[in-house]
């Protein structure tokens, strides 16, 4: 920084000096905009409430949304691990109690270390390390391939730290045009929304047989969705979309009970604490994961999945940062999530969380970041509240049953993640050039998957073969060919190795 720049920065003053009470602004939105513009988070230093950031009641929204989302995803991951490992190994028998215990481990220790301490106080420019949603459908295949959760975590963490050290994550984000990013977001939003709507109708259709009722409850899903569409549209109309997850989730619960579907909600997770000793989880083939410590074969089987998970981080991080850019006002670069810092946090969290007994595959926390961006809130205060909520839910147990109940889970993911992804993607497609890149990205995603689509269209777009041809002229040979080419080759080989390319048998 030059002397002039330092003087200008000093003249602006600190966050504490520039803060003004909300009463001095014409609207709440103006106050929140001003808060974002004056914040200067310290990277890898101590950030304190009052001095560097403040708690606002809007921070409760992403905290609640993130807690609901992560409980849902952790439960899905642990159940998939338990089923896959039990099928793979004759001596392994992991049931529902195991899955609940591991979910609690993941919600206790990582919440304290990487939500409250890391993203809350140490580096608010790093988004929280949550769950790698696109990897959930692969968990069964990972287990059946002979991978070991701890071996996978170590490899993923090491690869992530290497990429973060060389600023590879931010480089890939900067080389992804608006058209490619917009197409990626539209596809993810559409497919996610379709999945949750289908799951909600499946749940509703099965209620009659499960409760031996004399009448059908298959209409419950339609009424829940229809009324929530109206509620979500109204919240968008009055500029309160950030309230969508709590209000729509409450509406879903109320409608389900009013229509007689409440009998499906069972409270089975009693208050308690899991075993927090790593020795219990990994020290024997008779306790915890019943796998013991990983050996060389476990690392070899885990390798392609670790490469694939890290390769998928960049488009995941890209979507979350874009959400901030679309919803924050101008001059808020200081509070945007740093892709490489987030990658560092995710890598460390992956290794530490799994070493302590967890089984999550981590990534940037979308069910926190997207509502936070919509609510115009920075990372730290909400991260602290979210960490506290995760600890409370994990200890009490019973709230976990509510968050994974199908009406709550589907509606929360729809209005908190997938609909906003669709909206953001459409906002990024601004002209015919970007629409061409977006359309080809969506097409390629349907042909294979979103990671393949992102890598392929980024390579084509940066070379002027699709999208804005003039943009390619401004890029260096490295940015046009070397970096996108390597990303495409690595992603394609990793997907081919684990059988993610349609029609091509897996290589291992």
TrEMBL record:
Record keyword Cell division present: no
Ranges annotated as spanning the membrane: 60-86, 98-122, 142-166, 178-197, 217-235, 242-263, 299-318, 379-398, 404-426, 438-460, 480-501
Domain of life: Bacteria
UniProt entry keywords in alphabetical sequence: Membrane, Transmembrane, Transmembrane helix
Region (Disordered): 1-22
Keyword Transmembrane helix: yes
Protein name, as recorded: DUF3360 domain-containing protein
Organism listed in the record: Motilimonas cestriensis
